[in-house]
Amino acid sequence: MDPTAPTAPGERPPTGGAIEARIAGKAPRVHILTGAVCNNNCIFCMEEDRDGRYVVNSATTDETVRWILGQHDAFEEVCFTSGEPTTNQRLPVWVKMAKEAGARQISMMTNGRALSYDRYARLLLSAGLNKVYVSIHGHTAKLHDGLTRTPGSFEQTVGGIATIARYKRHGVALHTSTVVTKRNLPHLHDIYVFLRERGVDQVVFNVMQANGRANTFFDQLFPTYTEIAAAAEAFLQQASARERQAQAFFVDIPLCTTTRLPDHNRGYVEDYVHFEPPVAVHTDLIPAERLAERRSGPDGGLVAVRRADLDDSARHKRPECAGCRYDRVCEGVWGNYLRRYGWDEFVPVP
């Protein structure tokens, strides 16, 4: 039996270590904090402290980027992200610097709106950008713009996707990221078909992280993991009539809730590190006494912040998790989620 083929209702996929092996073998990427501002206003944005983001990301300079790029061999990918990178006028210069430094994968996480302007998109691609992650949260303007709270953003984002799709023949990878909410959960298949028909290589459905605005508007936005997994299973079975192996991936959802999904479609959050000024690092993430060991960058003016620093204190496990086959690669459940929904839906997998 093909381990990646969709299962029939009530049938569990064959056991195996595929997802565990993929997670254990993942290589980190480096994030370069680029956009001090964002031209969308997403209701679920993790970066709720926009003033703080402005200060931190504005501290990224040519010297900062040059030093980070000097470490690129340690990472599988250099990714320009945070805020909206295309609002930074230095982005094309920094992309070119990454190419000249020898980085193999040069990517950007973006809402894609600026890419609807062909001339600007070509500027970034000619500078060396070869992978684009576009955030899009619906297949209609009503759905997407309602979540971004930015009228007209859908039209520009779809235009940006169309622009990058035209240049895929030059080796550019086009991925999308859709944050799963109560509003778009019933439309997974429609969103997937919409994006694949427009040339998207991989459609990633990101389950919300229960921090920032996602915590502020939790009750209005956050479905249970069980509801997401059931909708994902139904969508993938529907998608199998169109494609033998759907290029859709569900990310940041506890693996114990997704055992009915084909292993191929069970994704994971990338491991990454970014660098920021020491004054911006909260001591609840990295204790003050440990900041010195994380010092790096030009003249020790930066601190390495890993994704685990941001997540570990906010995620939890219970003793029963130790008996689960996924315990070694599972990152736990958001504390804010547990306070609303409890532990009942999380059953350890033998």
For CATH, the homologous superfamily is named as: Aldolase class I
CATH topology: TIM Barrel
Low-confidence stretches: 1-17
Report the β-strand fraction as a percent range.
15-25%
Give the helices and strands as they follow along the chain.
HEHHEHEHEHHEHEHHHEEHEEHEEH
Main beta sheet, described?
10 strands, mixed
What structural class do you assign from the helix and strand content? Answer: alpha/beta
Work out the helicity level: 25-40%
The coarse overall form would be globular
Count of spatially separate domains: 1
Top CATH class:
Alpha Beta
- Our count of helices gives 14
Kindly, what is the distance between the CA atoms of the first and last residues, rounded to a whole number of angstroms? 21 Å
Which features does this protein show?
single chain, alpha/beta, TIM Barrel, ten-stranded mixed sheet, two-stranded antiparallel sheet, globular
Give your account of this protein's structure:
The chain has 350 residues and is α/β, with parallel strands linked by helices. It has one domain: Alpha-Beta Barrel (TIM Barrel), CATH 3.20.20. It has 14 helices and twelve strands. The protein has a ten-stranded mixed sheet. Strands 11-12 form a two-stranded antiparallel ribbon. Helix 4 (91-101) links the parallel strand 2 and strand 3. Helix 3 packs parallel to helix 4 (91-101) and helix 4 packs parallel to helix 5. The longest helix has 15 residues, at 225-239. It is globular and about 50 Å long.
Summary of the model, kept short:
Keywords: Iron, Iron-sulfur, Metal-binding, S-adenosyl-L-methionine. The chain contains 14 helices and twelve strands. By secondary structure, the protein is of the alpha/beta class.
